[in-house]
Amino acid sequence: MSFGYQVLGFGSGGGPAVYNVQFLVIAGGSAGMNYYGAGGGGAGGYRTVASKNFEVALGESYTVTVGGGGPDSPPHSAPYPANNVAREGVASVFGSITSAGGGGGGSYPQQVGEDGGSGGGGGSGGSPDPSPVGGVGGSGNTPPTTGEPSGSQGNDGGQAGNYQNGGGGGGAGAVGADATPLNVSGNTPTIIAGNGGAGTPSTINASDVLRGGGGGGGCYGAGCTGGSGGPGGGGGATVDGTINTGGGGGAAPGTASGGFPSGSGGSGLVIIRRLTADSDTTSGTPSTSGSDTIHTFTGDGTYVA
Question: Where are the beta strands (DSSP E) in 89-150?
């Protein structure tokens, strides 16, 4: 006859004791691209569980990696083309959970945005043709994470316009906006880039914070309108993504004489939340909220459960 005895520190199956945590794992966002009407940077992959349902083993060590944002493309002078090498974000990791870095934006002419946690915006078209011939945005949620425990990690970038205006980078909560096609009917051409996609809110660290916004697209020409950064850390045209949000950087606006500067991607973040009674670990930077302890990592480390 079994009386259900359990040795302290071990489960009924003889293995190590386990408990459940909540997590938020955000990768680094991509930098925005430079050169004529490039696409905004995609936000870093955003993976989370809304409640404590991810199992960890008491005393076991779990690797934590916080991905950096993609470096900005420096200003350039003639001769062109400028340095339009992709500037993707870096992946973040918590144990078996990996969030992919944000995808870089496409550049001129008509380059497709890079795939990533969220996709980069498409690069601009190369002629004032009224048909939309700009590059398409990169795919988000790449590689795919559609199943448990966290669902999709991001969205696609927006399509570029038909003349030197790039699409917005994808965000954790929404796709990047398409650039507005060039209006050639008026006396003053309208050159408007796409806005970055919005991020996603989380209350894992006791306050409702929006993170994972995509970067705004760039444009070329006097009076052009660069895209706005997606809410949640995305940078507007030439503006950096916000650190520890995974926000995408904004692409370069303006004219050739300005050198096409772009914004860097925002670094990522890892947060783990548990019942205080489940463990006495002090991993990361701990804080408390009610009956829970919250472990925040803004750099690489180890979560000792």
Answer: 92-94, 97-99
